[in-house]
Amino acid sequence: MTFSSTEFALLEHYVKKILAAPVYQLAVRTPLQVAPALSAALGNQVLLKREDLQPTFSFKIRGAYNKLVQLTPEQRARGVIAASAGNHAQGVALAARELGIAASIVMPRTAPQLKVQGVRNLGAEAVLHGESFPFALAHALELAQQTGREFVSPFDDPDVIAGQGTVAMEILRQHPGRLDAIFVPVGGGGLIAGVAAYVKYLRPDVRIIGVESQHSACLQAALAAGERVRLAQVGTFADGVAVAQIGAHGFDVCRFCVDEVMTVTNDQLCAAIKDIYDDTRAITEPSGALAVAAIKQYVARTGARGQTLVAIDSGANINFDSLGHVAERAAMGAI
Length: 335
Fold this sequence. Notes:
single chain; alpha/beta; six-stranded mixed β-sheet; four-stranded parallel β-sheet
């Protein structure tokens, strides 16, 4: 993969921001661990990047903190407002609490109660509005304009993207040897943009494969059209990635750095949640299992053997009462 001078300059810009991001004042360096049963079953080394072990049980704390810590004193005094299906919400709430910033987060009414309560427990205001993320986003932008509070995007912001990119910095440091592909969950594109920019700048041979829910495949649609498109509707089972349009800043990177975008079904996600549990005894939320579901599909399609494949396990914020449905559908997704 070769880049134009403009593309290379954009990657360099993000790499510098990633290296300078002070995320470890709040986020933790998460393990990159082998999934032994999954690796044996697939005939490849599968490594799980355990972002479910972050303080808010999601990678989102990285981008949220990196954005908030760089606000001016005047912006901090006015407070912040965000829109989120839940994981960014908790990241903003925790970062705001640590930095002494007032925070309001607009969440869809369909957001898992666990995430809503998590926001409130961290001292932020949770405003429930709309049936899915796009409605919550529109309301949050309206409130930000009315109140003068700083809007903190869950994905469409260079500082947020840089914060998420520290995931890739850790992966390459933790595994300097052979690395064939990194599978990255995609909602609004902040995580994959940060990961792709860092990896393609340093290791352009490593494939970056985005993974979307079949019911919210906004990056796949954008790449096919050659421009950002807005989906008419999105499914909310994988609520963490239920986004109708890829972010503009993220798409600027993804359009030339992402090698492939795959989609997976809800049943495949349920099966992947079980696979992760079998190897780690950790329960992942549906969006957190996207990468594992895609690796299984990728190996079945390509016949890959002996490769090293990384799955970013992006979060573990799932309502307990959803587990019965996940267990029931896991058998169907394994077929």
